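tool=predict chain=A
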Amino acid sequence: MKHRRTLLVVIVLTGLGLLGWTALRAAALPSVPTYTVARGPYRNEVLAYGVLQAQRSTPVTVPTNLQRPMRVAWLAPAGAVKQNDVVVIFDASEVEKQYEDGRSDRASAESKMRKARAEGDRSSAALGLDLTLAQEELKRAEDVAPTDAAIFSRNQILESSLDRGLLQKRVQTNDAKKLPVERLAAADFALADIERKKAALRVTQAEQSLKSLKVLAPHDGTLVYPLYWRGDGIAIGDTAWPSQTVAELPDLSTLEAKVFVLEGDGGSLAVDRKAMVEIEGQPGLVFEAKVRRVDAVAKTRDRQSPVKYFEVALALDKGQGKGLKPGQRVRATILIDDLADVIAVPRGALFEKDGRRLVYRFEDGKFRPIEVTVGRRSLGRVLIEKGIGPGDRIALADPERREGPGAAPGSTGPSAAATSR
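tool=predict ok
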């Protein structure tokens, strides 16, 4: 009985000791998830998507002779073509209508010219006849004019003088009308001639357009249709403009990947950065590449989205890319940084307060703010150049922020036992 009592006391004391040790240990542990700082490699990669294209290619464009937007009626299938093979055929209905309208307008203008000439000749003839009659009447009036006061009365002499004056005015008026009438007829004829020339020009343009409705391949090669900003190429029924590139004959020995990098990830992009290009839909088909060009300005790809991207050209290494075709979609991984021995921490461990960049280091049972100097950043990690060192334990959440009324710091986060390096 005595031994049982002693054993019970020992068990109770042991239990109390364990509870006390657990309480002390819990008090010494941080209240938010932490990260243990260590030196190691830092690799920053950017993921981008795009399509294959050739560095050099021969464009197949809409002929400038068409001089108007045209609707595509037929497209040759992408693939091998020979020189002078038909690549694109445009709808002829609008051009044929232009041709017929031009011919009709030209005939109408020629009719106006004939009418203007006829009316001018008729008006000139009428004025000439009136002038001749007026001159003859004036001559007769002058020949028989009563001038002898001994024979004719004063009234007869005055009436004859007035008649001769009127006939003289008539002759002068008809003579003055002749030049304006001729000028008016000439102006009507000239206007009709201008209309005829404009109509004739439309007919000539339509004739040239009818000869240019078929676009031919300039040389042997592989025909491809480039993708537009919306992600697809030209199709039957689409409208194409003069000089617009509708197809290409690429040089397959100079393939590159045209990819788009988010503006926020493109700050450290530079020529000659290494990259890996994978053909979508063909797992395992990966090629080495280098950055050949980076656009200086980020641009939007979709008119309805404000998101901006840098366009980047990735040149495939020589000897690679056999069997690939322009237009194939790719996924590229561009290496921005590859450092061997640095300090990098999760982005969630970095805070900015009052213009200072801080981390919270756990020491002596509590978190202390430490100002740090930050280097490059990736999507998930940040390089720390100064302020902390290997072995430091830093918070992955703000220990000064409470997640609700009365909640303890870090009460909603994972336990300290779930911390990682």
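The chain has three domains: 30-56+253-421, 61-90+214-250, 93-211. DSSP finds three helices and 22 strands in the chain.
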